[in-house]
Amino acid sequence: MKVRVFSTPTCPFCVTLAEYLKEKGVEFEYIDVSVNEQAQKEMIDKSGQMSVPVIEIDGEIVIGFDQDKINKLLKL
Amino acid sequence: MYDLVIIGGGPAGITAGIYAARKKLKTLLITKEWGGQIIKANEIENWPGNKNISGVQLMTQMVEHLKSFEIETKEKTEVINLEKKDNFIIRDDKDNKYEANAVIIATGKIPRLLNIPGEQEFKGKGVSICSICDAPMFGKKDVAVIGGGNSGFETALDLIKYAKKVYVLEFLEKTLGDEMTKKKLLDAGVEIYTNVAVKEIKGDKFVTSLVYENRDTGEDKEITVQGVFIAIGMIPKAGFAENLVEFNKIGEIIVDKNNYTKTQGLFAAGDITDVKYEQIVIACGEGAKTALEVYDYLK
Fold this sequence. Notes:
Chain A is an alpha+beta fold. Chain A has helices at residues 12-23, 37-47, 67-74; strands at residues 3-7, 29-32, 54-57, 60-63. The model of chain A has no long low-confidence stretch (mean pLDDT 92). Helices cover 23% and strands 30% of the residues of chain B. Chain B has helices at 11-22, 55-67, 131-134, 150-160, 179-187, 280-298; strands at residues 2-9, 27-34, 72-74, 79-84, 88-92, 97-105, 109-111, 127-128, 142-146, 165-169, 191-193, 196-203, 207-214, 219-224, 227-230, 234-236, 266-268. In chain B, strands 1, 2, 3, 4, 5, 6 and 17 form a seven-stranded mixed beta sheet that branches. The radius of gyration of chain B is 21 Å and the shape is elongated. The model of chain B has no long low-confidence stretch (mean pLDDT 95). The chains are: A alpha+beta, B alpha/beta. The A-B interface holds A 8, 10-16, 19, 33-34, 37, 40, 44, 48-52, 63 and B 39-42, 54-56, 60, 123-126, 128, 130, 132-139, 162, 205-206, 227.
C-alpha cells in the first residue's frame, strides 16, 4: 500500500496525522509542499484543495485528518 | 445515569475530567475534538514544567493522562441540546441521550466567521483560518487577511514569507494589533485598509477576488487575491444551553467565582465563561476548581 502525506512543517493537523500513522505502524512518504513546488502543484491538482494535510492512499485522496476515512482505506 | 457529564475536551474539560475521576464521580466527557484551540498553537512557552511544547504534544499528553483514570469518553460527538427536568438530559448529534446530576460546560471558543457569500464555498480553496497550516500554499500569490487585530497581524506575518502581496482589511477605523507588528508589516510592503467591510469572496475552482465596501464612501471595491485568511477572533458557542445559562454581551456564560451558572447543578469552565483571561493554565485551573465544586455540590 502506497501512502503519501502532503504537509507543511508548521501545520498542527499534519503533525497529528504523521504521529497517528507512525503509531499504527503505517509506512508513508512525507512530502513538504512548502519547499517542493512540484508536489504542491500535484497536491492542488489532485485534491482541489489549497489546504493541508492531504493524504493519498493508493491513489485515493483524503482531505484533512479524516481519521474514519483513513482507517477505512488502510483497513486499520 | 451519570454523576457528571463534561461537555468539551480542551484544557478545562480534560482537567475537570481528571479531577472528577480522582473523586470517583461516575463521569462522561463528550467532545467534538480533543485539545480545542491549543492544537493550533505551534509553540507554548508558558505552561509550567515545559519550557517549550507544541499544542498537539501537550494535548496528546493531557488526553493520555485523562484516560489513565476511570472515565468514559465520547469523541467526535457534539452536544446539541441540554435541558433540566429532575436531572439534566443531554442529547448529542448521534441521537444519544444521557442523564446526569451535574453538568460542566467547557466548550471553549471557535473561530468567528464572516458569514458572507463565498466563505463556505471556497473553504480550503483559498479561504483559510489557519495560516501556520496553509501560508506556504500561497507562494507568489496575492492574499488578503481579514482582521486587523493581533491575530490578523500574526497571520499577515506568516504570509509575508511566501505571498507576493498581502493586504490586511479591518472593519473598524483603526487596527487594534500591536504597533510594533504593524510597523514590521508596513515595512514588508503590506497594505492595510481600515474602515472596510468585506462583502463577498469570488472565484471559480479557487478564490480569484474579494469585494469590500469602503465604509467612508459607501463605495464597493474588488481586489484580485488567490487567498483569504480570516482572523477576526474567536466566539463562544453554547447555544445548546441557552435556556439554562445567562450570557454576557459577547456570548460567554456568566459564572460566579465557584463556576456556578444560574441553574443549580450546571457549571461552566474555561474560555466559554466570562472569566477575563484566556490561557491554558487558567482554563486548567478553572476546570479543576469546577470539578471540585461539583463534588461538593453532589455530596
